[in-house]
From TrEMBL:
The lineage of its organism: Bacteria, Bacillati, Bacillota, Bacilli, Bacillales. Residues 2-224 form the ABC transporter domain. InterPro entries: AAA+_ATPase, ABC_transporter-like_ATP-bd, ABC_Transporter_VariousFunc, P-loop_NTPase. GO terms for molecular function: ATP binding. This is ABC transporter ATP-binding protein. Pfam families: ABC_tran (PF00005). Keywords: ATP-binding, Nucleotide-binding, Transport. PANTHER family: ABC TRANSPORTER ATP-BINDING PROTEIN ALBC-RELATED. The keyword Nucleotide-binding applies. The keyword Nucleotide-binding applies.
Amino acid sequence: MIEIKHIHKKFGRKVVLQDVSFTANKGEITCLIGVNGVGKTTILHAIMALTPLTKGDIHIDGEKVTKKTFEKVSYIPDAITMPGQMRIKDAMEFMNDFYRHWNQQRAHEMLQFFRLKPEERISSLSKGNTAKVNLLLGLALDADYILMDEPFSGIDIFSREQITDVFTSHLIEDRGVIITTHEIQDIEHLIDKAVLLDQGEVKREFDVETVRAEEGKSVVDVMREVYQG
Ligand SMILES: Nc1ncnc2c1ncn2[C@@H]1O[C@H](COP(=O)(O)OP(=O)(O)OP(=O)(O)O)[C@@H](O)[C@H]1O
């Protein structure tokens, strides 16, 4: 389980997160929802210890986040970090050399799943295929938790559909996923838990199925209540 415990974050004098707490379980998809600039990426960076916190703690499976917890989590940023001149197969080789928990078999399965050509250069890929390669590079790591920052942003409906198919496939297995988005429609049916953020705070954290069964409300219904009052 990833436990976010009372975290605060300031950049200079700007307060971004104020006492944010929530949990994300293994085997579940947790979605962080909020408008641009609310602090979603900052939370993912904090889980990866890429940004120091002003206050609060983060634990992964009961262990405080440190360099030792790195291999438990794979962070998939909203843009690909591999150089454009690399071919897809070079990027895969690089990952294989660099990470001991890289799973080459899963990487090849994902190439087929997304119908990507290993010879293609990253710079010549469409936006949708770039997003798929980015996802492949993150999901092929044998990590217990996956953090995905806006995997659908700026890509067409067919690529979005293919990416959402990943969530119901064995490629996710029983890993814990935290995904950020401000476009919930694509994945509403897939998520287990939603965390609604506003002005640096968690306005509501809820189990999607429970709210659907007990209150008859969808994630969008709850978002309307929280954000529109
Ligand atoms: N390194 C930094 N220095 C100063 N301010 C920063 C830095 N990183 C982020 N911020 C600010 O912190 C706030 C939260 O940013 P963050 O990227 O976490 O938001 P977000 O919810 O992920 O937004 P988006 O949906 O646009 O990706 C923003 O106001 C941003 O300008």
